[in-house]
Design brief:
By secondary structure, the chain is an alpha/beta fold. The protein has 11 helices and 9 strands.
């Protein structure tokens, strides 16, 4: 089955290698955060639906910085799928696998990656037509060693994974080297407190460090 993500989007996410995962409390901070990430070389981000400002923040970024591939995370209901589409989300992800949410995203034309953590969930996601899967929580589950094990039986399907949970600049090496990776999720790149303090310099520095490490590993 064909991916729900366009070839262009898959290529952009793969080349970026990392998706900054954000919690934004005030919409006014959205565009400066995205600019700080772009300045550091990170061109994909996931705004989690954990604050009332998230959808307004997304709409602002999509309008003012079209070069940033901005999607929505923590989509837990079909209603949130509709809200994400209305805010012009580039893609959606969720921590878990909810069939109603997957079907709503497909009906709305929203590229969507559900969360998985077991082989049974992989098979359920595949049966629903998903080809990009979020592994959550990655490090507590066993990290790349765990992903390599559960991905092996399905490698011939060409599935790609977005691991998130416990990742940091220090432990991303095995993920970047993996053929199973689409991109890794990095909540450390633009931490909530840095956004609240409007410390754009620190966010750019974190993004640049991630970009440089990913590039260095790929060039080995």
């Amino acid at each position: 089955m064909k991916s729900q993500f366009s070839d262009e989007m898959l290529q952009k996410v793969s080349e970026c290698g990392a998706i900054a995962v954000l919690v934004i409390d005030e919409a006014v901070n959205a565009v400066p955060t995205a600019k700080a990430l772009l300045d550091g070389g990170i061109c994909a981000m996931e705004l989690t639906l954990r604050t009332p400002a998230a959808l307004e923040a997304l709409a602002n970024i999509r309008r003012e910085l079209p070069e940033m591939l901005a999607g929505v995370g923590t989509i837990l209901t079909p209603e949130q799928v509709a809200q994400a589409v209305e805010a012009n989300a580039a893609f959606g992800v969720a921590p878990g696998l909810n069939e109603n949410v997957v079907l709503a995203a497909q009906a709305a034309g929203l590229p969507f990656a559900p969360g998985i953590m077991t082989p049974s969930e992989i098979e359920k996601a595949v049966s629903l037509g998903c080809r990009e899967l979020k592994l959550f929580p990655s490090e507590p589950l066993g990290g790349m060693k765990y992903l390599k094990s559960i991905a092996a039986p399905y490698a011939h399907l060409g599935l790609k994974y977005l691991p998130l949970g416990g990742l940091s600049l220090e432990n991303i090496g095995p993920y970047v080297e993996s053929p199973h990776l689409l991109a890794l999720g990095g909540s450390w790149i633009a931490k909530r407190e840095l956004i609240q303090k409007q410390d754009w310099t620190a966010i750019t520095a974190n993004a640049r460090a991630a970009r440089e490490k990913i590039d260095a590993i790929r060039q080995k």
